[in-house]
Every structure is written in structure tokens, then in C-alpha cells.
Design goal:
Layout lengths: L1 H111 L8 H20 L1
Pfam families: DUF6468 (PF20072)
InterPro entries: DUF6468 (IPR045531)
Protein name: DUF6468 domain-containing protein
């Protein structure tokens, strides 16, 4: 009977170890299933990330092209503005020259013309009539 008890204990130990192995396999199966699900989600995430990266690279390329075009347009407009500025400066200098010549002519004419001591009465009366006439026409309109 000693052998029978020993055999029963060994069989019981094997059964317990088998139950533990089955339980461990079940837990391992659950973990592997979760890992596979996570792998599929990770693969989807990586695919989305690659797609987003490609779109970002395309957008960056388009932005670079646009920046280059804008830089060219700005350079063109800047050179036009510089040429207009130079031309305007020449016109202003020419205008100053003309104004100084006119001022010199006016000064010369003022110095050359005799200065009347008093205004003639006829001229003053004519100016007063002209003012009255223009006021009446302005009020009638």
C-alpha cells in the first residue's frame, strides 16, 4: 500500500502541476491576444503617422515654393520701389531748382518794379465792386 500512496501522491502532484500549467497557458494566451491586438493598433498608428509625415513633407515643400515665389515678387517690387524713389528724388530736386529760380525771378522783379506809395483809388474801388459782385452772385446761386 505504500507504493499505492506514493503513486497517488505523485499522480496528485502531476495533476496539480498540470492544472498550474493550464492556468499559466491561459494567462499567457490572454497576454498574447492582447499583444496581437496592441500590435494591430500599433501598426495602424504607424501607418497613420507615416501618412501624416508624408502630408507634412508635402505641405513643407509647397510652403517652400510659395516662400520662394513671394521672395521673388518682393524683390521685384522692392527694386521697382527703389527706382521710383530715385526718380521721385530727381523730380523733387528739379522742383526745388525750379522754385529757387522762380523765387530769384520774383525777387528780381520785386526789386526792379517801383513801389507805389499808396494804392490808386480807382483800383481799390474796382476791387471792392468785384467783391460785391461775387458775393451777390454767390448768394443768388
Amino acid at each position: 500500500m505504500g507504493n499505492f500512496a506514493l503513486g497517488l501522491i505523485v499522480e496528485g502532484a502531476v495533476a496539480v502541476l498540470l492544472i498550474l500549467t493550464i492556468g499559466y497557458c491561459y494567462i499567457l494566451n490572454v497576454r498574447l491576444k492582447r499583444l496581437r491586438d496592441d500590435r494591430a493598433a500599433l501598426q495602424t498608428m504607424i501607418t497613420d503617422l507615416v501618412r501624416a509625415t508624408d502630408q507634412a513633407n508635402g505641405a513643407i515643400t509647397e510652403l517652400r515654393k510659395t516662400a520662394i515665389e513671394c521672395d521673388g515678387m518682393i524683390q521685384t517690387r522692392l527694386s521697382e520701389a527703389e527706382s521710383f524713389s530715385i526718380e521721385l528724388a530727381h523730380h523733387v530736386n528739379a522742383g526745388h531748382s525750379v522754385m529757387s529760380k522762380i523765387a530769384m525771378i520774383a525777387q528780381t522783379a520785386k526789386n526792379a518794379a517801383p513801389q507805389p506809395k499808396e494804392k490808386p483809388l480807382k483800383a481799390k474801388a474796382a476791387l471792392d465792386q468785384l467783391d460785391n459782385f461775387s458775393r451777390r452772385d454767390g448768394a443768388a446761386a
